[in-house]
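re the bet — no i am not wrong, look at it urself. input seq straight from the record:
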Amino acid sequence: MDTKIRVLEALKKVRPYLQEDDGDIELIEINVPVVKVKLLGSCEHCDMSTMTMKVGVEELIKRTVPEITQVIAVNGKL
């Protein structure tokens, strides 16, 4: 399965949790081994966004797509 499809599948799994808090996530770019995403809505400026990225989004993507070693948020203070 293609890398982009697997990354999108991982994001689909985490998206409902972000949407519970009026947030969302958008895939910006994949340049293996790095994925760039943008947090949207309330997640964009949330004080917990760094933890959400590291513990939630990044770990899930890295487990789902082992060739990805880093996930970077391209917005705000991240």
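see?? The mean pLDDT is 91. told u. also The domain at 3-73 is CATH 3.30.300.130 (GMP Synthetase; Chain A, domain 3). so pay up
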